[in-house]
Amino acid sequence: MAENKQTKLHEIVVPTSPLPVWYFIFNTDTGVPKYVAPHWHRGIELSYTLDGRITDFMIAGKHFDTQMGQILVVNTQVIHSVDSTIKKGNKTLSIIFPFDYVANLYPEINHQEIDINYPEKLNNDQKLAYSNLQGLLTQFYWLASSTQPLKNLKMQQIVDEVLLLLLERFTKEKPPESEMGQRKVYVINRLQFITQYVNNHYQEKLTLDSIAKKCNVSMEYLSRFFKKQMEITVDTYINNVRAQRAYFELKNTSHNLTQIAMNNGFSGVRTMNRAFDKLYGKTASQIKRNFKN
User: Fold this and answer.
1) CA distances in angstroms from 84 to 55, 95, 102, 227, listed in the order given
2) pLDDT, tens digit, for every residue of 263-272?
3) Those residues with Cβ within 8 angstroms of residue 283's Cβ, 6 or more apart along the chain or in another chain
4) What are the helix and strand counts (H, E) for the chain?
5) 38, 81, 136, 141: which has the highest count of C-beta atoms within 10 A?
6) Distances 282 to 249, 276, 289 between C-alpha atoms, Å
7) What angle do CA 242, 30, 265 make, to 5 degrees?
């Protein structure tokens, strides 16, 4: 089910059978929400804005406002999120290459990263490769929604060509941890732990105190640290993750609002409605009515 596929995105990347990668088509027809809470995974993620824009795609604390034709890559274990205004006609493609799949074909990726997110810095060879990638990803987008019998073979071929271009033209050596500085490594590791913990335990009772104890720090320190690094409070982050998961359950099941609230860690429908209103500008009750119409 779509709900399960979305849940897995934040834990283990499950390929979209029969391909070796996970992919998803985002457009105004799929009803995908405008918000994806900060998270990370080992897989290498590619985002392609075919039409429209993503107004705020955050990767490792850097904010991107994508335009039509723009490609973004999220390297392995990098925290990222999306908070975007959805407009009619928006079309975006996401592909996640499982890290082990890439590393088995190209072991050098263990000490390299893909550097493609700033098109203005590309050399002439890279600009040509970038143009080729745009064409391939556009083909993939339209093939994904087609019914032609050979579509999976064609999509597999495109996946291989895209990966080859990324690795051949856009890789660079990762900076050693000594250059990153101990403080930056500490920040990355701590944020990865917190976001993964919330994504894995959002159905349970989560508090600032319980997460602080898991991190062996005080509540005051955790509150300041998280707000500074993520630009939102821990409580807001927890509610956003729950609301995001509840949104997909709302869209993809016939469960009533009370069931959905309980399944996603909310104390009740009223609490869930408040979280939805802050995140989506509509309560869960209003969104449920919209899906029915």
Assistant:
1) 5, 18, 29, 20
2) 999 999 999 9
3) 273, 274, 276, 277
4) 12, 10
5) 38
6) 16, 6, 11
7) 10
Give 120-128 contacts, CB < 8 A, sequence gap 24+: 125/169, 126/169, 126/170
| Contact in structure between 80 and 38 (CB atoms under 8 Å) | yes
Q: What mean pLDDT comes out for the span 155-163? A: 98
Q: How many CB atoms lie within 10 A of CB 136?
A: 18
In the chain, list all ranges with CATH 2.60.120.10: 2-173
User: What is the rounded distance in angstroms from the CA atom of residue 216 to the CA atom of residue 13?
Assistant: 29
Query: Residues of CATH 1.10.10.60 domain(s) within the chain?
Result: 180-292
**What pLDDT, in 10s, does the model give residues 189-223?**
898 899 889 989 999 999 999 999 999 999 999 99
Provide the token pair at 130: 């970038």
Fold of the domain built from segment(s) 2-173: Jelly Rolls (2.60.120)
Q: Side chain identity at 48, as an amino acid letter?
A: Y
How far is residue 122's CA from residue 113's CA, in Å, rounded to a whole number?
15
Q: Which of 23-37, 132-146, 228-242 has the lowest mean pLDDT?
A: 23-37
